[in-house]
Design goal:
It is built from 14 helices and 12 strands. The chain is globular, with a radius of gyration of 19 Å. Strand 2 and strand 3 form a beta hairpin. It has a domain of 234 residues: Aldolase class I (TIM Barrel, Alpha-Beta Barrel), CATH 3.20.20. The chain has 351 residues and is α/β, with parallel strands linked by helices.
C-alpha cells in the first residue's frame, strides 16, 4: 500500500491533492441515492451467439488513435510523490493493454515546475493516447494559451482535457467561481492549440444542450463524467474549513445528471459526437452498457485508484477482468465487435 502524504509545509494545492487521494480511498464519498443510471438498462441475452469468443474484437479508434480496448483511465491525480507512483503504475498497464489515460489537473505543475515529473508518464507509455488536464475556470484566473501548451508539453499529450467543476469550486475552500465567459475562451483555445480539446465534468454530468454548444465552438470530444460515482461535493465537505462549507457539501452530495442519461441524450442529439462515458462506472458490464448507448470510450477512475494504491499487479488484474467482462457481454449478445454492439438492439431500458 502507498504511504499517505500530508504536511503543513506543503504548498496549498499539493496538500489538497494529497487530501483528495486520502479522502477518496478512506472516506465514504460516493453518491448515496443517485446512481450512474446504468441500472435502468439491461442487455438481451443471446443463447445462440453463432460466434467464436476468441474472435471478439474490442479494438477501437478515438480521435485518430488506435486502442486495444475501449477504456480510459480517467483523470485523477498528480503533484505529489504518492500521485507520481500512482500515475506511473497506471501508465505502465495502460501501455501494456493499449488503453487511453488522462492525468489529474496539472495546474500544480505550471505553478511548481519541479512537480512536472509526477505527471510525465510518456517515458513508460510511449504509444497510448495521453490526455493533459487543466481546469477550464483557470482561463478566468490568468491562464491562457501558454499554460495550456505547457501542460500538453509536459505530458507529450495527444489532447488537452479542460475540466468543468462549478459545484466543486463552490464548496472547495477558496474555490474559483468566476465561470463567466469561459466558453469564448475555450473556443479560442480550440482554434490555437495543436492538439484536440476534450471537455469533461468532474462527476456532475454534461447535458446535451451544453455538449452541443461545446461541439459548435470546436471541442473535439465530450467526457460527460456524470453523477453516480465519487461525489466531489462530499469530498470537499470532508476538507471543509467551517460548518457552512461542510453543510453545503452535504446538501449537494447527490447533485447531478446520471452518466447513462448524459450519454443517451447527447448521442441522440448527435450520434457522431466523440463521447467518453465516465462517472461511477465500476465494471466492464457498465462499460459495455455505456458503449451500447453511444459512448466511444468508457472511463473509470475509482477502481483504478484503488488498484494503483496497491500495486501494478492489482491494476493488471483489474484490466484483465474488465476485458473479460466486455468480451463476455459482446459474446452473450451476439456481437463480434464494438460497432456491432452500438448498432444492435442488444440493450433496453427497463425502468
Amino acid at each position: 500500500m502507498l504511504s499517505q502524504e500530508r504536511s503543513v509545509n506543503q504548498p496549498n494545492i499539493q496538500v489538497r491533492k494529497a487530501d483528495h487521494i486520502r479522502i477518496c480511498l478512506e472516506e465514504d464519498v460516493q453518491f448515496n441515492r443517485l446512481t450512474n443510471g446504468f441500472d435502468r438498462y439491461r442487455f438481451t441475452h443471446c443463447c445462440l451467439p453463432e460466434l467464436d469468443r476468441n474472435e471478439i474484437d474490442l479494438s477501437t479508434v478515438f480521435l485518430g488513435k488506435k486502442l486495444g480496448v475501449p477504456l480510459l483511465i480517467s483523470s485523477m491525480t498528480g503533484g505529489t510523490q504518492t500521485a507520481k507512483t500512482i500515475n506511473y503504475r497506471l501508465a505502465e498497464i495502460a501501455q501494456k493493454y493499449q488503453i487511453a489515460m488522462g492525468v489529474g489537473s496539472q495546474r500544480i505543475a505550471v505553478e511548481n515546475p519541479d512537480l512536472a515529473d509526477t505527471f510525465a508518464v510518456r517515458e513508460v507509455a510511449p504509444d497510448i493516447p495521453l490526455f493533459a488536464n487543466l481546469g477550464a475556470v483557470q482561463l478566468n484566473y490568468t491562464y491562457g494559451l501558454d499554460e495550456c501548451l505547457r501542460v500538453v508539453d509536459i505530458l507529450a499529450a495527444d489532447a488537452l482535457i479542460l475540466h468543468l467543476n462549478p459545484l466543486q469550486e463552490c464548496i472547495q475552500p477558496r474555490g474559483d467561481t468566476n465561470f463567466k465567459g469561459i466558453i469564448d475562451k475555450i473556443e479560442v483555445l480550440c482554434s490555437k492549440l495543436p492538439v484536440p480539446v476534450i471537455v469533461k465534468e468532474v462527476g456532475n454530468g454534461i447535458s446535451a444542450k451544453i455538449a452541443r454548444k461545446l461541439i459548435e465552438i470546436g471541442v473535439k470530444a465530450i467526457d460527460v463524467a456524470g453523477a453516480g460515482g465519487t461525489s466531489w461535493a462530499k469530498v470537499e465537505s470532508e476538507r471543509a474549513e467551517n460548518s457552512l462549507q461542510r453543510k453545503l457539501g452535504k446538501s449537494f452530495a447527490d447533485w447531478g445528471l446520471p452518466t447513462a442519461e448524459c450519454i443517451e441524450s447527447i448521442s441522440r442529439l448527435d450520434p457522431n459526437v466523440p463521447l467518453i462515458a465516465s462517472g461511477g462506472l465500476r465494471n466492464g458490464i457498465e462499460a459495455a452498457k455505456a458503449i451500447a448507448l453511444g459512448a466511444d470510450l468508457a472511463g473509470l477512475a475509482f477502481p483504478f485508484l484503488q488498484a494503483a494504491s496497491e500495486s501494478t499487479d492489482a491494476i493488471d488484474e483489474l484490466v484483465e477482468l474488465l476485458i473479460a467482462e466486455l468480451t463476455t457481454v459482446l459474446f452473450c449478445t451476439g456481437n463480434r465487435n464494438l460497432e456491432e454492439l452500438q448498432n444492435s438492439e442488444s440493450i433496453q431500458k427497463i425502468m
